[in-house]
Amino acid sequence: MTPNYFAYAALLLWPLVSIYLFATRPVSQALLWTILGGYLVLPVGTEIKLPGVPALDKNSIPALVALLGCWSFARRPSHLPKGIGLVEVLLAALLIGPFITSEFNPDALQVGGIYGSFVLPGVGHYDALSACVAQLIVLIPFMLGRRYLGGLRDCDTIFRIVTLAGLAYTLPMLLEVRLSPQLHTWIYGYFPNSFEQQVRDGGFRPVVFLGHGLKVAFFAMMAVLASAALWRCREKILSQSAAVSTAWLAGTLLLCKSLGSFVYAMVLTPVILFMRPRLQVRLAALLVSLALVYPMLRATDLFPSDLLLDAAGAVSVERQTSLKVRFDQEKMLLAHASERPWFGWGRFGRGRVYDETGKDISITDGHWIITMSTFGLFGFIAEFGLLSLPVFRSLRAVGRMPEREQVFLASLSLVVAVGLVDLLPNATINPFSWLLAGALLGQAESIRVVGTKPIANKRQRLRTVSSGEELRADR
User: At a CB cut-off of 8 Å and minimum separation 6, what does 72 contact?
Assistant: First the structure.
């Protein structure tokens, strides 16, 4: 089915909504609502194509208009470190990676065999430039989060907005649990994915406007963790204890029928509520470390895939079968990627696997294998390194913050870390994920401006809060 006129109208009207937010709200709130709101309500797969530029869709339009809004309305001073550091090196690697990949992939590929074949084009310089521009647009939320969401108050704002958005989103989610995923079809005129994939355990996964039930469940999990952080700090949401919103969101998450996201929430919610912030950040660092070494573990058969298959089988045969398909596909795609391991095969489906008839037999669920196949180990290190670096930077920063802000920083570290881990089985990366990673990095870096010694007592905490608020005024 093709998008209706309202789908295109929604994309065209979102810049007006965003500019209104920037004109009437603090920059941090406007930035968060622009990126998160666009992700939650705009249509999936609808694109406005213009010559010479990447397609404008629900990911690129909010990012570009947020950049314009911050440039036009922001007045806060910069806290970013001077000079070139590891962050800048990784950013540069992500942007120059497509050009290096194009240099190693000028050859056309013939796929198929005796029953039929076709040719995949080589990667030229124009294609590299197009991929570079696309990467730059992807990175805009990260850079904006680093620049404008790095204050002591901003983490509180992030969690409040995520919790409120999650509570609002439970209404269409519950509607689709009851009626089946229909809202995207009713409003935008088409269903963006396979309907069969949303049928689970005799019911339906809600899809709403995110394209897949797994993405809805992952967002619901993020909202549960955000609400739990507010609960620990004894904050209220809509005049009620955050414990109420946490319970409501957790119940809705259970109805999403996503085992992975539900396990994330059930494990990390008690961690946020009861574990010391420094230990939480260490746990987050352990999680991102596992994500970084995962390709090596898979390539050397050191990853305990059989153990995970047995665990999935204890839940249901259906989940075990689904997980086995993922592991088999990863093994096949990793073998193909190993033929050009450093800089990948490039785009145009060159990193996928085809049978003797020329049929594409690849199923690319995990974002990590997509990155490895397309841009190689160089691209994987650049992208996953950039997403994991904020967590590592938080290891030192958390001890230099006021007690309340330690809770928020640690919770945000866990949210970013579990987002990176989820990129191993799924492709749930989105502009809001990049925004949160940038915000975490900005907050860790801003501690260098506020002070350099651990906060030891209450009086010192109060002085640090005052200093941080003065340095990081919203306007």
Answer: 22
